[in-house]
């Protein structure tokens, strides 16, 4: 495998690169200039640049991780999210089509594509209707449709991974687990005076998977995924944000009081998102290995080390 990872310097990209080190010849792209000889600066909004880089590297597989990913931010920067996620993907697929249509491409979507699921619907399967309720979810939904379009119209060997919430050490602020862990670490290190943590809606239920398990799933999809198909990447287990917070607070040496922060409430909130990973399991045998409490402890310890 000769792999090209777009967005290789991002949260998931770094973990995927590390996982592939002994399995593939790895190259990557970043929006920023890099001195590393296997990472290339690339603006995916330039189809010409993308085409020339693909011709230069000649990858057998492309893992398309580049893009914008924060749901809350997408409400304030709608056009940026459409440009980065949708137009960037169009340019990548066009460049692949013209450079070498035998390259296997995996795009990355999100459980936010499903939007609000009817109460009592249970675990969400890939064929469930897509009703995104955020600009971010809409942009990822468009990518999944582009995958089907390019497969059916041009025969491109492209698959779509649809991960649910992925968490782990190194995730930037702006996501629930790392935000909580960061605040708790600040208190325990004595960096802030008040033993209070700002929270949003604790009643929502999500399906959390360790990013180190996620990238293993991406590798399996890259190897065995069928062109034009979508694969949920998830645990199949729902966890309330309240439970997530309680686990993280159990690591604290100090008593901490949660305080509701209106700024942490989303304009539109999906009450429950829990996926069904059976399609991916049947295809590849992949299953998540890491326990939620262990992942949360790693996130918390990572912040203690960094602060």
TrEMBL record:
<dbReference type="InterPro" id="IPR016040">
    <property type="entry name" value="NAD(P)-bd_dom"/>
</dbReference>
<feature type="domain" description="NAD(P)-binding">
    <location>
        <begin position="4"/>
        <end position="298"/>
    </location>
</feature>
<dbReference type="InterPro" id="IPR036291">
    <property type="entry name" value="NAD(P)-bd_dom_sf"/>
</dbReference>
<dbReference type="Pfam" id="PF16363">
    <property type="entry name" value="GDP_Man_Dehyd"/>
</dbReference>
<protein>
    <submittedName>
        <fullName>NAD-dependent epimerase/dehydratase</fullName>
    </submittedName>
</protein>
